[in-house]
Structures are given as C-alpha cells and as structure tokens.
Amino acid sequence: MVIAVGEESRTVQTGRTSDAAAELLGQRATVFPSHHGGFLDGEFGYPGKPDEFAARLREVLDAS
Questions:
Q1: How far is residue 52 CA from its own chain's centroid?
Q2: Residues 55/48, Cβ–Cβ less than 8 Å
Q3: DSSP-assigned letters across all residues of the chain
Q4: What predicted TM-score, i.e. pTM, was given to this entire model?
Q5: Domain extents for the chain?
Q6: What CA–CA distances, in Å, run from 64 to 1, 14, 41?
Q7: 6-10, 17-21, 35-39: segment of lowest average pLDDT
Q8: Separation of alpha carbons 44 and 59, rounded Å
C-alpha cells in the first residue's frame, strides 16, 4: 500500500491525514508533485502538475 500526499498539501487536512495514516502503518507518506489533486490539468479550476505527477507515479510503481 502506498500512502500519498501532495507536496503543496502537507499542512492541510488531506496532507495531515495521509501522514498520520502512513505513520500508523509504519511507513512514510510518498510525496507527489503539486496538491491533493496534482494529477488534474486545470479543467476543474485548480491546475495540478499532471506530467510531473505521472512521472512520480511511474517511479513509485516501478519500485514496488
């Protein structure tokens, strides 16, 4: 299981809960570029970094 957190979301509720859940499982949250919806391309008003997110996701999946 990979618990993920957006680098811009570490201090908000979604980031804090990701960090807390990972800690309970004895691991660290895996940091992804952008915010909670970093995979989005702006179609919903708050663009993420989908290309950087996809590259990080490939790294994480390749390592597992």
A1: 11
A2: no
A3: ---EEETT-TTSHHHHHHHHHHHHTTS-PEEESSSTTTT--STTSS---HHHHHHHHHHHHHH-
A4: 0.82
A5: 4-63
A6: 9, 24, 26
A7: 35-39
A8: 26
